[in-house]
Amino acid sequence: MKKQLLSFAATAGILFSTFVGSASAHENIYNVQSGDTLWKISQANKVSVSDLKTWNHLTSDNLYVNQKLSLLAPHSHELVAPTYTVQKGDTLYLISVRFKLSIAQLKSLNHLTSDTIYVGQVLKINAGGTSNPVPAPTVSKAQLAIDEAKKYIGTPYLWGGNTPSGFDCSGLTSYVFNKVGVTIPRTSATQWSGLKAVSSPNPGDLVFFETYAPGPTHVGIYIGNNQFIQAGSKGVSIADMTNSYWKPRYLGARTAF
Fold first, then answer.
1. 50 C-beta neighbours (distance < 10 Å), count
2. Backbone angles phi, psi at 82, to 5 degrees
3. pLDDT tens digits along 103-139
4. Which secondary-structure segment (H or E) carries 5?
5. HSE-up of 32 (CA within 13 Å, CB side)?
6. CA-based nearest residue to 147, from 171, 118, 174, 179
7. Residue 21 and residue 157: Cα distance in Å, rounded?
8. pTM, rounded to two decimals
9. Residue 193 and residue 227: Cα distance in Å, rounded?
């Protein structure tokens, strides 16, 4: 009888230690100590640095004391709908590209009624399940200005207008550039005189024309292929610099970049 009890206890002990070991493995969290590096932790725990960074959503090799690191790949049942915290310089466009969503999807997921976001705002980036972010793209401010200007195509013309309710030519350019963090003068004349001249425009540069009076009286944003976005008498639209109206009135280009 004593032998049977000992045998039972030994068996139970084996089962218990197996259960505990499994639980520990499932909760394999490492607490960063002073002097730790990702390489040191990876060697001690027989995992790769790249896996450590992927499993813990790390974008650099920097660590801090008492940081909790998972030493296991996440399990499917532990995945939750991911979120993203807005950083300085972010726009809905940049976030949408990074997470492979459309701006409309982002706005719908987060019940946004405008394109305005603020630093620290937490945005859902997937309706449920997982999302695989790609490295944030390097998008030039020139391209951001073009993308911003395209949002207002169809906006009516308004003399002196510099809001989405109505634009004049320089009201559009100054508003758009301000939206992407570039400050330029308000009028076409001061934009012409205050910005750096270029021999030929690159996308995002300003192109100037002489229309109703001598000098630079009209301005638009060059988008490439001899086309520019401008606020004309029929509202914000894309025009061709080589057509019979604009070509003889072209004065030159200026850049804010």
1. 11
2. -75, 160
3. 888 888 888 888 889 888 888 887 544 445 555 555 6
4. helix 2-26
5. 19
6. 179
7. 72
8. 0.51
9. 22
Question: What token pair was written down for 17?
Answer: 């230690």
Residues β-bridged to residue 192: none
Which amino acid makes up residue 252? Answer: G
DSSP assignments along 101-163, one per residue: --HHHHHHHTT-SSS---TT-EEE-SSSS-----PPP---HHHHHHHHHHTTTTPPB-TT-EE
The beta-strand segments (E) located in the chain are: 29-31, 68-70, 83-85, 122-124, 162-163, 166-167, 196-198, 206-209, 218-224, 227-232, 235-240, 250-255
Taking the C-alpha atoms of residue 148 and residue 181, their distance in angstroms, rounded to an integer, is 12
Q: How far apart are CA 57 and CA 59, in angstroms?
A: 7
Q: Which residues are paired to 220 by β-bridges? A: 207
Give the helix/strand (H/E) hosting 65: none
Q: Regarding predicted confidence, which is higher, 103 or 158?
A: 158
Measured CA to CA, the distance from residue 18 to residue 248 in angstroms comes to 85
Residues in CB range of 181: below 8 A, 6 or more apart:
89, 141
Pick the range with the lowest mean pLDDT from 36-50, 61-75, 102-116. 61-75
144-177 CB burial, b ≥16 within 10 A, e <16: bbbbbbeebeebebeeebbeeebbbbbbbbbbbb
pLDDT at residue 42 tops 60: yes
